[in-house]
Amino acid sequence: MTELDGTGPLLQLAWRRDSWVVIASVLAIVLLAYSSMAATLSLYSTDAEARAAAALMSATSSVKAMYGPLPALTAEGVGVIKTITMGGLGAAFLAHALVRRHTRTEEEEGRLELVAAGVVGRRAPLAAAVILAASAVLSTGLLCALSLMSLKVSPAGSLALGVVVAVAGLVMTGVSAVAAQLTTTTRGAGGIALALLGLAFILRAVADTSGIPVLGWLSFLGWAERVSPFGANRLWILAPAVVALAVLLAVADRLLHRRDLGSGLWADRPGPATASPRLGTPLGLAWRLQRGALAGWAIGYAVLGLVVGSLAGSAGAIASDPKTAEMLRKMSGGHGSATDVFFGTELRFAALGAAAYGMSAALRLRSEEAPGRAEIVLATATTRWRWLLSHALVALGGATLLMAVVGTAAGVSAARSGVIGVGALLGAAASTLPAVWVSTAVALLLFGLLPRRSAMTWAVLAGFLLLGELGALLKLPDWVQGISPFAHLGSLPGGPADLAGAVVLVVIAGGLAAYGGVAFGRRDLVS
Amino acid sequence: MLRNMALAITATGLRKTFGTTTALDGLDLTVEEGEVHGFLGPNGSGKSTTIRILLGLLRKDGGEVTLLGRDPWTDAPDVHCRLAYVPGDVVLWPNLTGGEVIDLLGRLRGGLDATKRAKLLERFDLDPTKKGRSYSKGNRQKVALVAALASDVPLLLLDEPTSGLDPLMEKVFQDCLREVRAEGRTVLLSSHILSEVEAVAERVSIVRKGVVVDTGSLADLRSLTRSTVVATLGTPLDLSATRAWPGVHAADLDPTNAQRVTLWIDTDHVGEVLRSLGEHGIRALTCQPPSLEELFLSQYKDDLAEVSP
């Protein structure tokens, strides 16, 4: 028996379990690439118009921080810029989810043990997961390229976009493979890999806005960006990505051979023999279970805020060019300066991340219920409402804390350049909270109503994100764009707050959460 | 049938379906206060579903159920203060130690006896400083058992609590249950390990395909079934005549010793049969009451007939 025996059957098993999710995710990314390009091409009737828009975008530091510099000052450049970031991130998330799910999760739940006792080599589970993830991101890249070619844009540029997606996805496959060897839990492995992804994103954003572009080569998302589709078309960057994947896989393989099945590289230490006084209520338990993840997010958000705030000076500099400042004002609906628009954009993006935190914290309810841990808690004097509210409180409070952290950190670091104050940024961060709460409440609703389908929450968040990114470009009707709670947040800082909108959102959030709670109170606990 | 005693658990005509599967099909169950009640049945017969309804974790589709005189669905928290539950497959929090889980569950239930806790940890030989993810199946089970047994609640709902325990720990568990019984507490013990139930239970209910097919004290149930009598006789026996004796179901001669006979008889006819055997001069005799295993098998022989070719 060789160490790769059984890779084929394991791959089949993985495909049998995940084919629908993989296909849907791949198609979503391809659809994003195709529709942003198609919509952009139809938006500008002349080259001059496209060039003017491209020039404006490339001068906007919020665009630079979010998406990087435009690869080319053309309609294609405008049409591809969002896909470079969103498509790359999408492929990275997909690769990460697949690798983690078929390695560490299988091991943690004990299913791998069942499989490993058969004719399955030591390397086979990792190999199958990596093959699945790599095939998924390569297919995504290829389909993105083909879909753009169907729009009669430059084939080299189309292919280069495919390379962007592949570079981000392949390197993340390797990162996730290593992370899966380090800890004993799925959550831990995910934390490490996603923190690295976040770091790569921040490094890239800093490189693109700080005037030290060489920093971007330290980030694999920076590599992806430097492929520069429809600009320099550096297809060769695929080569270092493949090398990076190979190196990371070699590291993962070494780690795999140094540890036992079920263990990580870091062994468990004994803990306290008795519980601390705080661990005696449902809320105490929820806090104990979730505090680690929240601390990780809070650190990430503090760093994000400091970085974003430090860019305030460069954002203000653009406004000194009166023509650009005028266009920016138009773009933002006539409110505020370039600095305001920059922070508004960044904070709204941070709010999407806080919503993702809120959802994942709320879905803890489901990951407590499914294996049967909720059962032993609810067999005590704990009522269902109290148990649900304890996790809901951590989710809503944690997401709120994250926005406070990012607003304060951005404010403190921006205040040094004197263009904007802490209060203004904290207020702007607070103004996004109603949408964050609605998103979290969606998770609570789905948990109560459709517990086995509660992961659909993530599709809802992806929907909110796509409506915000593409809604205006695709000229979707207002009411469709308005489905996303993030469309009703006013225009802080600088512009007016939407107080009525905020009240309506808070009421909706309360209604969704309450309905979810009532539905949970009436249903069976299900595994 | 009901004696004049308070009832800890009553279920009448309990029904529960999951999609197209009928888990409980009119189940009746009565557990008196202060008894250890064995709840027997093979896998998938509806034992866990019943217990989860008793805990208010599942909602009944029909029938009536009370727990300590209350409705377990609407009065769950009040009832839960007075009971402890051990599931058959304990899942712990990977990053909490066993000791933390024991304390947590005790506090959530409203308190825990620290002396008992320490004693139980010792008796079950459980290390409370290990994290949930590093316990074996048996040790996870012990964590839940210690948490349940260390509380002073009047009712214990135990759903196959000893799965994964080694024989030594199984014995410790049985000792603990005897103590619980001596304290006058009530236990519903679901199991398919018959010796365990036989060792500690006063009454049993046998469930099959979502219905209780037999319930009563072990003595009652035994009287309904057959004892095995093996006798070595002074004079040979005419088998066909023996089979006509009242209460005799079957008779067999030892092929190597024609004076050694085995009879399967109704338990309430043992006396008559022994008198008849006495006429043939008994030299040696053993009389075995039916084991719980035989009781159990007699209830399931249809199922066994279906699976055997």
- Tally of DSSP helical segments of chain B: 11
Give the overall shape of chain A, derived from the CA principal axes. Answer: globular
Decide which structural class fits the backbone of chain A.
mainly alpha
Instruction: Determine the N-to-C terminus distance of chain B.
Output: 40 Å
Indicate the percent of residues in helices of chain A.
over 70%
What spatial form of chain B do the alpha-carbon principal axes imply? elongated
Name the features.
heterodimer, A: 527 residues, mainly alpha, 2 domains, 22 helices, 0% strand, globular, B: 309 residues, alpha/beta, Rossmann fold, Alpha-Beta Plaits, six-stranded mixed sheet, four-stranded antiparallel sheet, 11 helices, 13 strands, 35% helix, 31% strand, elongated
Short description:
With 527 residues, chain A is an all-alpha fold. In chain A, 74% of the residues lie in helices and 0% in strands.
